[in-house]
Amino acid sequence: MQVATGTVVNGNIVLEGVSLTEGAVVTVVTRGADESFLLTEAQENKLFAAMAEIERGEYLTLDELLQSLSIHN
Asked: What is the pLDDT of residue 1?
């Protein structure tokens, strides 16, 4: 897993210093033009850990989450 920064040019995301293989699956997190997006090392590690959990299938669907919330009300 890697983190890359890019810019949208003519509707396409152009990455800086990173090449991906054709068909690579990516996740895009966007920010507004006037917002910054910085993570501490600890926050970045938590993000990577959460992403790894999702890749392993360790997550709740929206329906499962809503069902679990309604049980406790």
From this structure: 61
Question: b/e string for 5-14 if b means 16 or more Cβ within 10 A?
Answer: eeeeeeeeee
Domain residues of the chain, as ranges? 6-71
Amino acid (one-letter) located at 25: V
**Strand, helix or coil for residue 16:** coil
pTM of the model: 0.44
HSE at residue 20, side-chain half, CA atoms within 13 A, is 16
DSSP 44: H
Identify the band that residue 56 occupies on the pLDDT scale cut at 50, 70 and 90. Answer: very high
**Alpha helix stretches (DSSP H) within 1-73:** 41-55, 62-71
